[in-house]
Design a protein that fits this description.
The protein has about 90 residues and is α+β, with helices and mostly antiparallel strands. It has three helices and six strands, in the order H-E-E-E-E-H-E-E-H. The strands form two sheets. It has a four-stranded antiparallel sheet.
Length: about 90
């Protein structure tokens, strides 16, 4: 498995530990409703915090997070592959 960037690792750790209920796509700091070609960042928010990640960082971690289980009250959650990637990263950092 390839090494996660700091931004990818931090985002996945945030998803694993923080409630998140909404997401929006932005371009130049403003919300956009246009398609993926037009947005530059994704902002995921919850009741206690939010996280902004660049689109290029997300491209490398598709499949490591996805829609949360119905009824969990979260929008996104780590997949099994995401949990494994974080565990592998922690092992490599130790």
């Amino acid at each position: 498995m390839r090494k996660l960037t700091d931004a990818q690792r931090d985002f996945l750790n945030w998803l694993a530990t923080q409630p998140n209920h909404t997401s929006e796509w932005t371009r130049n700091g403003k919300r956009t409703m246009r398609g993926p070609k037009h947005w530059t960042h994704m902002k995921v928010s919850g009741p206690t915090s939010s996280w902004l990640i660049e689109k290029g960082q997300l491209d490398g971690i598709r499949g490591l997070y996805g829609p949360a289980e119905f009824g969990s009250r979260n929008l996104y959650a780590l997949t099994d592959a995401g949990r494994a990637a974080l565990a592998e990263q922690e092992k490599g950092d130790a």
